[in-house]
Amino acid sequence: MQLYKNQALKIYNSLSGDKELFTPIHEGSVGMYVCGPTVYSNVHLGNCRTFISFDLVFRYLKHLGFKVRYVRNITDVGHIEDDADEGEDKIAKKARIEKLEPMEIVQQYSVDFHQILELFNNMPPSIEPTATGHIIEQIETIKQIIENGFAYESNGSVYFDVVKFNETNHYGKLSGRNLEDMISNTRDLSGQDEKRNPQDFALWKKAEPQHIMRWPSPWGDGFPGWHLECTSMSTKYLGNHFDIHGGGMDLKFPHHECEIAQNEACTGQSPVNFWMHANMLTLNGKKMSKSTGNNILPREIFSGNNEILSKAFSPTVTRFFILQAHYRSILDFSNDAILAAEKGFNRLMEALEALEGLKTSDKSSIDIEAWKQSCYDAMNDDFNSPILIAQLFEAVRYINLLKENKETITVADLKLLSETLNAFVFDVLGLVDEKTASNNNDKLEGVVNMLIGMRNEARANKDFALSDQIRNKLTELGIELKDSKEGTTFSIQS
């Protein structure tokens, strides 16, 4: 029997403002879409918090036995600088400044994004579509919205008619905003704007002559609006109605609000059952932001090359720090906070290491089954990772008492304790035992050095076929050899 059949998972739904019992649309399967990064700069820790939070959701759903299709997009075009409809495309602007092709910018920062999430031990999504790879789908979505009477063309651009939509639907239901209030608080842009209403947003923007990223469309050369890609890609891979849509709290308005409007205008139905939003990460009590410079990059944390922290901290300790707060809570990053997280992480790893040496008895003085359910109860309460971690430290306390012979445990209960701890620490929280990883790296280095020695011997014997075969096989495995006067070294390509 799948675990989800015995566990009542409740998820906080941003749309209703309540925790609701999660029942997937299709028995045993979950469709989840999460808004990915706009790849015009290095991903900072605040961005990573969102993706680590939804990695936790992904991991726990899989742990419960659900078949999960997790879709996370890459925004590689159409994200205007001020997140509205004016200004310059962020990627095009970066390309202009650095005198590169926009797709060079996209490639550079997409690679950085994937490398960082891999270091954090995030599982890759099931599908990772790009905006530029789905221009046709976005154009078709716009055509349908126009046909349904909720969009209009103006001077080569297409805008969503928010006022017309609000006559039959509710624009603002996710963010709790009222359109009449929004209109009354907007200054008059008469004569300065090609929109019918200031609240209307772009589905397609006309490309000016200097605009680099452009595609042909029925309305002329241009590029899609930022909000449109998620509507087109989520419905393509998950259908018109799916289970979960996630993203950062800052996306609730206008991005997710516009998504709902687009979906309803296009398909006539609400797209998502559960809207989830991860809260922001602050740095020393202030909002973490690329634009203000109050941010820290993950690589700066891992290397210690920064002016904020007293030392370097590993990716898994940083991940543990992030998961110590509930995903909907604001989390402040500071030197003291991550130092405390490192101490806690080390205690947890030491306890796991001590499991193998524990003595067993004929009876248990600890109710391991009840403790195990308390771990599930924590995660079933809207993925409450800090409560789960508190329960894991309760297990650490048990282990220490067992080491001191102050409690007893049976063989079966010790096995259950070990299996449950390992499942929640490594499979659900996604932490990594650094000592084991370090030992594995040492073993890998030994094997590669042995092969380098065999290759050197083959070269000395003029057996160049074997020498090349060893190099080529290592290259296929992502291990690159570099020959120099001092000898041969290797590097592992990520």
From TrEMBL:
<keyword id="KW-0963">Cytoplasm</keyword>
<keyword id="KW-0030">Aminoacyl-tRNA synthetase</keyword>
<keyword id="KW-0547">Nucleotide-binding</keyword>
<dbReference type="Pfam" id="PF09190">
    <property type="entry name" value="DALR_2"/>
</dbReference>
<feature type="binding site">
    <location>
        <position position="259"/>
    </location>
    <ligand>
        <name>Zn(2+)</name>
    </ligand>
</feature>
<dbReference type="GO" id="GO:0005829">
    <property type="term" value="C:cytosol"/>
</dbReference>
<keyword id="KW-0862">Zinc</keyword>
<protein>
    <recommendedName>
        <fullName>Cysteine--tRNA ligase</fullName>
        <ecNumber>6.1.1.16</ecNumber>
    </recommendedName>
</protein>
<feature type="short sequence motif" description="'KMSKS' region">
    <location>
        <begin position="287"/>
        <end position="291"/>
    </location>
</feature>
<keyword id="KW-0648">Protein biosynthesis</keyword>
<comment type="similarity">
    <text>Belongs to the class-I aminoacyl-tRNA synthetase family.</text>
</comment>
<dbReference type="GO" id="GO:0005524">
    <property type="term" value="F:ATP binding"/>
</dbReference>
<dbReference type="GO" id="GO:0004817">
    <property type="term" value="F:cysteine-tRNA ligase activity"/>
</dbReference>
<feature type="short sequence motif" description="'HIGH' region">
    <location>
        <begin position="37"/>
        <end position="47"/>
    </location>
</feature>
<feature type="binding site">
    <location>
        <position position="255"/>
    </location>
    <ligand>
        <name>Zn(2+)</name>
    </ligand>
</feature>
<feature type="binding site">
    <location>
        <position position="230"/>
    </location>
    <ligand>
        <name>Zn(2+)</name>
    </ligand>
</feature>
<keyword id="KW-0479">Metal-binding</keyword>
<dbReference type="InterPro" id="IPR032678">
    <property type="entry name" value="tRNA-synt_1_cat_dom"/>
</dbReference>
<dbReference type="InterPro" id="IPR015273">
    <property type="entry name" value="Cys-tRNA-synt_Ia_DALR"/>
</dbReference>
<dbReference type="GO" id="GO:0006423">
    <property type="term" value="P:cysteinyl-tRNA aminoacylation"/>
</dbReference>
<dbReference type="InterPro" id="IPR014729">
    <property type="entry name" value="Rossmann-like_a/b/a_fold"/>
</dbReference>
<dbReference type="Pfam" id="PF01406">
    <property type="entry name" value="tRNA-synt_1e"/>
</dbReference>
<dbReference type="InterPro" id="IPR009080">
    <property type="entry name" value="tRNAsynth_Ia_anticodon-bd"/>
</dbReference>
<keyword id="KW-0436">Ligase</keyword>
<feature type="binding site">
    <location>
        <position position="35"/>
    </location>
    <ligand>
        <name>Zn(2+)</name>
    </ligand>
</feature>
<comment type="subunit">
    <text>Monomer.</text>
</comment>
<feature type="domain" description="Cysteinyl-tRNA synthetase class Ia DALR">
    <location>
        <begin position="374"/>
        <end position="440"/>
    </location>
</feature>
<dbReference type="GO" id="GO:0008270">
    <property type="term" value="F:zinc ion binding"/>
</dbReference>
<keyword id="KW-0067">ATP-binding</keyword>
<dbReference type="InterPro" id="IPR015803">
    <property type="entry name" value="Cys-tRNA-ligase"/>
</dbReference>
<dbReference type="InterPro" id="IPR024909">
    <property type="entry name" value="Cys-tRNA/MSH_ligase"/>
</dbReference>
<feature type="binding site">
    <location>
        <position position="290"/>
    </location>
    <ligand>
        <name>ATP</name>
    </ligand>
</feature>
